[in-house]
Write a structure and sequence with these properties.
In chain A, about 25% of the residues lie in helices and about 30% in strands. Chain A is built from 8 helices and 18 strands. In chain A, strand 16, helix 6 and strand 17 form a beta-alpha-beta unit. Chain A has about 325 residues and is α/β, with parallel strands linked by helices. With about 260 residues, chain B is an alpha/beta fold. The radius of gyration of chain B is 22 Å and the shape is globular. Chain B is built from 6 helices and 15 strands. The chains are: A alpha/beta (about 325), B alpha/beta (about 260). Chains A and B meet through helix 3, strand 7, strand 9, strand 10 and strand 13 of A and helix 4, strand 9, strand 11, strand 14 and strand 15 of B.
Chain lengths: ~325, ~260
């Protein structure tokens, strides 16, 4: 009888990625039986004890899992799932999870709900809520089979703190017959704070009128220890690199404070930032869509407002 | 070289958020009057990826395939105008309201019927449900490898080589054909068909197949994921606009307010 929740742990440079304890938190709150984790990779066994608040950590430590490939990880995760027999599997909507989720669900003869932002049990069954239609709608799904597989949007769930490390269960698995192989991988060295991890994001839109408008955006981001974001129009126009694009086709961010300057708030942009805890909008158009989602705002021309705001922030911060 | 590109017809996503309406009882989106459905953004880019291969590799044939209502013929015709060779339209009452697994089952069955397919391209996700699973499921059902989030797709010596888009890395993945690749917007803008190409597309063959033609029945397509509810989220934030006689006053009011809320 399938029981409990199995989460996929992820590591970054040997340390737990934030998504791992977020998934543990989500799994615990479901109150749907014991929570276990699976950790897949090569030379990773020692990291298993860093995962807390779980009963067991299933570890597949094999050189064939040194780099993520869809086929090897799908087989490894399926092997763990067959041994652990969970009712629910949660993965992060990360590089790995968004690629692995559908393949794993198919291998287990079940279905996946992607990029979920809320999870709850109703009559003993998992119901997931996810944004659809570019963030304009929310879709609630249930599953007809077991296990229910869902990927969970990073930063949408409160982290599980504390709790004991789980009992390590080694699962013997060696991937074979991998066809799609990674032949080259270069890690991009991001300067400053990673956009997806930033607690503060300052985003500029087309209303800035040109790349030079981003000087103030960069300064404000710097003062607040945040990252710079861009709207799709800005990235399309080449004012800023695509890596900074926030939106449906760019990064999905959920910072504590999201400052949108001269951003109209098209739905495809909101799909990338609507998870922000506090949106601050500066826009000269009082009817701009961004104000509908904003908590604080200034109606005005950024050319006057932004320099004044930078000075005001400096002053207020200096007051301690 | 035979490439199949799967394209989906969706409600126009580029409408003002205020015009977006949902019929909660029917669990369906109600398009604003007079706004025609369009090809899903990433699927047009998948056609572009196929065309780039066709430009580089002699004897490449592109089949544009769509599952949906009879109106989905329009998105097939768009792909044919971009340079595709033939169309396959999959229409049947049994295909209504499929989940991703059912959708992939229909598409993979039609691809199997075509028989000689080397490469299947899809968009990274459809811009209606934004799930991003159909390409992977098609690959699983065909027993072919899948590579997701492609920014470039090249074919040589029986292999497909794909540059993948990752937030913090560049990755190149290679797989033997036949394979499935899902395409991301970083590949570039889809070409815009010229009038002459649109006229030529009108004469290109579009085969229409139903469930029986591809050996499926309604029972094969039972949903694994059920849509319980579809709604427009209520944005309950009331924006607090900063008042002031000058931009400086407004800016200072905002900074103080953020400080009070312990946000800076």
């Amino acid at each position: 009888m399938p029981n409990g929740v199995l989460i996929l742990a992820e590591l970054v440079d040997g340390e737990l990625a934030p998504i791992t304890q977020e998934l543990v938190g989500a799994a615990q709150r479901l109150n749907a039986g014991p929570v276990s984790a699976m950790l897949l990779g090569s030379g990773i066994e020692a990291s298993a004890s860093k995962i807390s608040g779980v009963e067991k950590v299933y570890v597949v430590d094999n050189p064939g899992l040194a780099e993520y490939t869809n086929e090897a990880y799908t087989e490894a995760a399926a092997a763990v799932a067959k041994q652990a027999d969970p009712a629910i599997i949660l993965l992060g909507q990360t590089n790995i999870g968004r690629d692995l989720g559908p393949a794993l669900a198919y291998k287990l003869d079940t279905a996946v709900a992607m990029d979920t932002i809320a999870l709850e049990m109703k009559d003993g069954k998992l119901h997931t809520t996810r944004p659809a239609y570019g963030g304009n709608a929310r879709a609630v799904n249930s599953f007809s089979g077991t296990p229910a597989v869902a990927t969970v949007r990073p930063k949408s769930q409160d982290t599980a703190e504390g709790g004991a490390a789980g009992e390590v269960v080694k699962v013997d698995f060696t991937p074979a017959g991998v066809r799609a192989k990674v032949i080259d991988r270069k890690v991009a060295t991001a300067e400053g704070v990673r956009l997806e991890d930033a607690d503060v994001v300052v985003t500029g839109g087309r209303g800035l009128g040109g790349p030079e408008g981003f000087e103030g955006i960069e300064e404000l981001a710097h003062i607040l220890g945040g990252a710079v974001g861009a709207s799709r129009a800005v990235a399309d126009l080449g004012w800023r690199p695509v890596a900074e694009q926030v939106g449906l086709t760019g990064k999905v961010v959920s910072p504590t404070i999201y400052i949108a300057v001269a951003v109209s708030g098209a739905s495809q942009h909101m799909a990338g930032c609507s998870g922000s805890k506090n949106i601050v909008a500066i826009n000269k158009d009082p009817d701009a869509n961004i104000f509908k989602a904003a908590r604080f705002g200034i109606v005005g021309d950024y050319k006057q407002v932004l320099p004044a705001f930078i000075e005001a922030v400096k002053k207020v911060k200096a007051e301690g | 070289m035979h490439i199949v590109v799967c394209v989906k017809q969706v409600p126009d996503w580029d409408i003002p958020p205020a015009s977006f309406k949902v019929d909660e009882a029917a669990k369906k989106v109600v398009p604003p009057p007079g706004v025609a459905p369009v090809p899903s953004q990433f699927d047009a880019i998948a056609v572009e990826a196929a065309m780039k291969i066709k430009d580089a590799v002699a004897d490449t044939k592109i089949t544009v395939m769509s599952l949906g209502a009879a109106t989905a013929r329009d998105v097939i015709k768009h792909g044919l105008a971009m340079g595709g060779d033939e169309g396959v339209l999959l229409v049947d009452d049994a295909f209504n309201d499929l989940d991703s697994t059912g959708t992939a089952k229909v598409l993979s069955s039609a691809i199997k019927k075509l028989g000689d397919v080397d490469l299947v391209l899809t968009g990274r996700q459809a811009v209606d449900w934004d799930l991003g699973v159909t390409g992977t499921l098609i690959a699983e059902m065909l027993g072919a490898p899948v590579i997701t989030f492609a920014k470039s797709v090249n074919v040589a010596n029986g292999n497909v080589t794909v540059e993948r888009v990752l937030p913090d890395a560049f990755e190149t993945v290679e797989a033997p054909l036949p394979a499935v690749v899902t395409v991301s917007n970083e590949l570039g803008e889809p070409r815009y068909p010229k009038l002459q190409q649109i006229m030529q597309a009108a004469r290109k063959q579009v085969n229409q197949w139903g469930a029986a033609d591809i050996g499926l029945s309604k029972d094969d397509l039972a949903p694994r994921l059920t849509l319980e509810q579809l709604f427009v989220p209520v944005v309950d934030t009331k924006v607090e606009l900063m008042e002031g006689d000058s931009p400086e006053d407004q800016a200072m009011a905002l900074a103080r307010r953020l400080k009070e809320a312990k946000l800076i």
